[in-house]
Amino acid sequence: MGRLxxxxxxxxxxAGGIGAAVARLLASEGADVVIADVRDAEGARLxxxxxxxxxxxxxxxxxxxxxxxxxxxxxxxxxxxSVLVNNAGIAEWGSMEDQSLASFRRVVDVNLxxxxxxxxxxxxxxxxxxxxxxxxxxxxxxLTSYAGIGSYAASKWGLRGLTKTAALxxxxxxVRVCSVHPGAIRTPMTAxxxxxxxxxxxxxxxxxxxxxxxxxxxxxxxxxxxTGTEFVLDGGILAGQPAVVTSDD
Length: 249
Ligand code: NAP
What we know:
Rossmann fold, 7-stranded parallel β-sheet, binds NADP nicotinamide-adenine-dinucleotide phosphate, alpha/beta, globular
C-alpha cells in the first residue's frame, strides 16, 4: 500500500519536466494520477506508462470551461479529487519596456489565472473528498526576481499570495495549500541554459525534477501542520552571496 492510495491527484503540466516527475512519484505512492496538459500525446503516453487508473486529459489551465470539464470527468470516472498540483507554467522573457502586452497576458493567464481557476474548480471536489492538499508550483522568482522576467516574476509572486489566501479560505474544509519555489531545475523550460547559469550557487548545479517531486510528496504526505507555507529548493541562492569580505588585520 502506497502512502497515497485512495487519493485522486490532478497534476497540471504533467506531461513533461517537473510535472512528469511529480506524476510518476505520486503514482508510485498509489495515487490515481490525472495528467492535465496541453500536450495530449505526451500526457497519454505517460499515463499508459504509469498504468493503473492513471490518465491523460487535455487541459489548457487558463480556460474556465476546460477546468469545469476536467473536474467533472475526473469525479465521474475516479471520484472526488483530493490532490491538486498546479504545475503548468510558461516563461516568456523581455524587459518591462520590451515585452508586448500580449506576451505579458499570456504568462499571467497560464501561471496565475490558471491556478486560480484550478483551485476554484477543484474546491467543491476537495470538500467531497473530506479534505486534501493543493500544491502550487511557484518559483524562486516568486520570492525574488531577475531583470527581464517581469511577467513571470509577477505571476509567481501572485501565485504565492494566492496560495496564502486559499490556505486561509480552505482551512475549515481540511484543505492545506502550499507553494513550492524551485530555483534552476533541468527541464525543457531551461534547456537553453548552460552550466554557467548555476555555477555561482552554493550548490553549483541544476536541480533535478525528481528533487522537486520529492518535496511535493513531502508536502502532501508529511507536512500535515503546514499550510500557506513556502517550500524553497534553490541550491542555496537565498542564503546570500559568497564571502567577499577580506581583512588586513
Ligand atoms: P516544462 O518543462 O515547460 O513543462 C511544463 C508543461 O506544462 C509542458 O508540458 C507545457 O506544455 C505545459 N503547459 C504549458 N502551458 C500550459 C497550459 N496553458 N495548460 C496546461 N499545460 C500547459 O516546465 P517545467 O520546467 O517542468 O516547469 C514546471 C513548473 O515549474 C512551471 O510552473 C515553472 O514555472 C515552474 N518552475 C520551473 C523552474 C525550472 O527551472 N524549470 C524553476 C522554477 C519554477 P508546452 O511545453 O507545450 O508549453
